[in-house]
Amino acid sequence: MSTASSTVLEPAWFTRPTCVVAADLVGKVLCRKLTDSDGSEKVLRMRISETEAYIGLEDPACHSHAGTRTERTEIMYAQGGVFYVYLTYGIHYLLNMITAVAESPESVLIRAGFLTEDSDRLIDEQYQSADKQLTHPKQFAGPGKLTKRLQIDRDLYGKSIEPTSDVWIEDDGCAPPISLRPRIGIDYAGDAKDWLLRYVWTDHPSLSKK
DNA sequence: CCGAGGATTGACT
DNA sequence: GTCAATCCTCGGG
């Protein structure tokens, strides 16, 4: 159990400007309710160390740039406070949170995090035995590795960011130092590849790249 | 209908 | 440094 008092962030928290939400999410706790092998429900808690902002119509790197509106991106046009999950490279699910107001198709990508000390140990050990490739079982430096650990997939698409969705965010007052970096993996986006829209916990070991 | 490519990762030269 | 894996999405014909 956590010693510091925590509050659950409400969906309305995510309706604020995207860059503010992206910065504020660093240090927050991403919570995932899972069913353990014995049938009991457990909660994994992963503290977020890195995020990226995708700022909508005028952002060439954003799926909704220039008002692109498809079946996949439809959820981006919803009011902030819901999840956007999609499959990339046919392999990895990426976890995003929709931000800002309705019809402003912006989101925050969760890129990295690390398990907190009160995360359930049974699930942790279960996962380690199932995936021996993992060298740092508590650090998840990359958006695909993070979703794999938390067992997040398309089922979460469009769900509200709150405990009834089995994925939610808690704030326990942690406010780490934050640095800005260019976003990763968007070389196709022209000048936007240099925009400082990646928010990292300064010098934290769990970051996805340097 | 079909082809191209991806908000990645891990393995390998 | 290079490259394959793997499949859904998207745009073009």
Would you write up a description of this structure?
The protein has helices at 18-25, 121-130, 143-150, and strands at residues 7-8, 29-35, 41-54, 83-88, 92-99, 106-115, 139-141, 167-171, 178-181, 198-201. Strands 1, 2, 3, 4, 5, 6, 7, 8, 9 and 10 form a ten-stranded antiparallel β-sheet that branches. It starts with 6 loop residues before the first strand and ends in a 9-residue tail after the last strand. The protein contains three helices and ten strands. 12% of the residues lie in helices and 30% in strands. The chain has a single domain (7-201), classed as Methylpurine-DNA glycosylase (MPG) (3-methyladenine DNA Glycosylase, Chain A, Roll), CATH 3.10.300.10. The longest helix has 10 residues, at 121-130. Strand 4 and strand 5 (92-99) form a beta hairpin. It is α+β, with helices and mostly antiparallel strands. It binds a DNA duplex (13 and 13 nucleotides) through strand 4, strand 5 and helix 3.
Question: Which class of secondary structure composition applies to the elements?
Answer: alpha+beta
- Show unreliable segments: 130-135
Number of helices: 3
Average per-residue pLDDT, rounded, comes to 91
Distance between the termini: 33 Å
Cα-atom Rg, whole angstroms?
A: 16 Å
What share of the residues lie within helices? 10-25%
Morphology call: globular
CATH architecture: Roll
Quick one: biggest sheet?
10 strands, antiparallel
Main CATH class: Alpha Beta
Q: Helix and strand succession?
A: EHEEEEEHEHEEE
Looking at CATH, the homologous superfamily is Methylpurine-DNA glycosylase (MPG)
User: Within the CATH hierarchy, at the fold level, what is the topology?
Assistant: 3-methyladenine DNA Glycosylase, Chain A
Strand content: 25-35%
Number of structural units classed as domains: 1
Number of strands: 10
Protein name: Putative 3-methyladenine DNA glycosylase
Keywords: DNA damage, DNA repair, Hydrolase
Enzyme class: hydrolase
EC number: 3.2.2.-
